[in-house]
């Protein structure tokens, strides 16, 4: 089986899961974006997935993503998401390739991204990464700090707050985590009407996430296979 055929089969299976989950939840399939997590996979896989109809791709390391996006500039309507933990000193580089940063979890990072976007003359879509269980050592801001961070982002003028993201903690039932995130985003929308996106759910738990209002599922393994040990 060729790599294209493998990806085509995997994509069909993932799409079927998303469609069924939407049907069970009484939602339209169009309400949920499939974000292909292509970290550690070669640019050729991104190009194949693009040919199969996907347009949104996620990376978690600036160096790898910058090179990959550079190789694929000819895919003009591809959108690149930064989903990994991000250091402030990488802000300038990330702004060069990312269309959206999904892992903004501190005021200092938001300020660095806003400054980098301003220099480049662009506005940058961002999501707040929320630590539902309060363990910020794994990334994400505490729920209690969401309002302050959202205010900093909105006031910057260079960042557009699009919503929030979380990774379900291993110590918590995924449904509980996704329900909590939905509540956070609901509160955000009251003061920040652009914050409509809920990024939750991955290969193992996308159905639970969709049932709790996720508008974006981040799928890597189910789409591309088991993670490669080293970057190409």
Automatic annotation (TrEMBL):
Keyword annotations: Pyridoxal phosphate
Role of this protein: Pyridoxal 5'-phosphate (PLP)-binding protein, which is involved in PLP homeostasis.
Coiled-coil segments: none
Name of this protein: Pyridoxal phosphate homeostasis protein
Organism annotation: Lentzea miocenica
Keyword match Isomerase: no
Entry keyword annotation includes Protein transport: no
Family listed: Belongs to the pyridoxal phosphate-binding protein YggS/PROSC family.
